[in-house]
Write a structure and sequence with these properties.
436 residues, alpha/beta, six-stranded mixed sheet, five-stranded mixed sheet, elongated
Length: 436
């Protein structure tokens, strides 16, 4: 079984803020001793950090839930609770993080040591020392901590390589990679010998160096899920130059030019922008007797079917077995890399807008619906967060929550919808009666 994993779905939960405290000091002439309850501590964030030592997402196969610690509760003497440590999660270079619910991309992590907060911890609740006023110098009010952010994430690993080797199975991609780099891919005389991407570093005779990836599984229909295509086509997206390896000996009984068209069609079907990447055609297995004649026919077909305004791709005859023509191919590849810029992987429509962790002023503060049992249901981010942070163990806090609902216009809205005295009103699992 392959130990390479390049996609994973996980759940992350940032820490809740610590609850604020209700406490009083004992001091002469101060009502009830005066408020002395401190604030709760901040909940821990969940932070992704790029680790260049990781090569796959295998760690996320067995551990799919990541939860940061909550902040400590507030203490007496006005002392704040301790904030929780952030939960650090290491990911490999080239990891794309996507919100599983919205499909939007949160970040693309490619630099070693790069950090990104994927879930923000909740702030600590305020202690009663914060609610003291001249009219109420000894309040019995405190806040619960704010809930930490919780989300489901889709991780995708797209390996970092300057050059991608593409082509039908058994055209010699793995053999080529093994002779131009120190990589040791599995090589066999059967299809789909390579079932995971292999990566190697090339150093040319002139001193240039670049990373090459052998990308398996491309056959006709790959972009629709045939073979291993959909599983590994994503890794081509980070490459800047494509080496299109073709078996010029036609040892499998296929026409080399038809192979060339078929693979390009799959690249285009998977992602049209892959066709922006410059290609070099690698005419492999030139040590075979039929290859020279096949290459001549291939060039004729290529010229005949190419648009006169487009630049013909370079063609390099090589033999991975005899190492013929390799130095010329590598020098040309390095030269093409020098003048090829990085390609933008995602457009703005795919990226999530910069996160805002307050309330959207334009969004409604609450919504009213009706349950099957005729109870009125109140919902909405602002209202639900207010509810979660209310300490219902304290009567004064409950009265404050009721005043806040009234100030938000909940009473009037319920009355306008036909709510009557004694009707049941529900917020989550909490129920109370409507009083007109």
């Amino acid at each position: 079984m392959s130990m390479f994993l390049d996609t994973a779905k996980i759940k992350v939960k940032a820490g809740n803020g610590g609850d604020g405290m209700v406490a009083f000091r004992r001091e002469k002439y101060v009502p009830n001793g005066g408020p002395w309850g401190g604030d709760g501590g901040r909940g821990g964030n969940v932070v992704f950090v790029v680790d260049e030592g990781l090569r796959t997402l295998m760690d996320f196969r067995y551990n799919r839930h990541f939860k940061a610690q909550s902040g400590e509760k507030g203490m007496t003497k006005g002392m704040h609770g301790r904030g929780a440590e952030d939960l650090i999660v290491h990911v490999p270079q080239g990891t794309t993080v996507r919100d599983a619910e919205t499909g939007k991309i949160l970040t693309d992590l490619i630099e070693n040591g790069q950090k990104f907060v994927v879930a923000h911890g909740g702030r600590g609740g305020r202690g009663n020392i914060r609610f003291a006023t001249p009219k109420n110098p000894a309040p019995e009010i405190s806040e619960n901590g704010e809930p930490g952010q919780e989300r489901e994430l889709q991780l995708e690993l797209k390996i970092l390589a300057d050059v991608g080797l593409v082509g039908f199975p058994s055209v010699g991609k793995s053999t080529l990679l093994s002779v131009i780099t120190s990589a040791k891919p599995k090589i066999g005389a059967y299809h789909f010998t390579t079932i995971v991407p292999n990566l190697g570093m090339v150093r040319t005779q002139s001193g240039e160096s670049f990373a090459v990836a052998d990308l398996p599984g491309l056959i006709e229909g790959a972009s629709q899920g045939v073979g291993l295509g959909t599983q590994f086509l994503r890794h081509i997206e980070r490459t800047r130059v494509i080496l299109h390896v073709i078996d010029m000996s036609a040892s499998e009984g296929r026409d080399p030019y038809e192979d060339y068209l078929a693979i390009n069609k799959e690249l285009e079907s998977y992602n049209l922008r892959l066709m922006e990447r410059p290609q070099i055609i690698v005419a492999n297995k030139m040590d075979m007797s039929e290859s020279t004649e096949n290459l001549k026919v291939f060039k004729e077909k290529l010229v005949a079917n190419y648009d006169e305004f487009d630049e013909l791709p370079q063609i390099f005859p090589i033999s991975s077995l005899t190492k013929q023509g390799l130095s010329t191919l590598l020098d040309a590849t390095a030269e093409l890399l020098d003048k090829t810029p990085e390609f933008l992987l995602y457009d703005e429509s795919e990226m999530e807008e910069e996160a805002y962790y307050g309330f959207d002023e334009d969004a409604p503060a609450f919504e009213i619906s009706r349950d099957d049992d005729a109870a009125w249901v109140l919902s909405g981010d602002k209202l639900e967060k207010l509810f979660t942070m209310t300490n219902f163990d304290r009567e004064e806090a409950v009265m404050k929550f009721a005043r806040q609902l009234r100030g938000m216009g909940v009473d009037e809205a319920l009355r306008a919808r036909g709510a009557k005295d004694g009707d049941l009103v529900r917020i989550g699992k909490f129920e109370f009666e409507f009083v007109d």
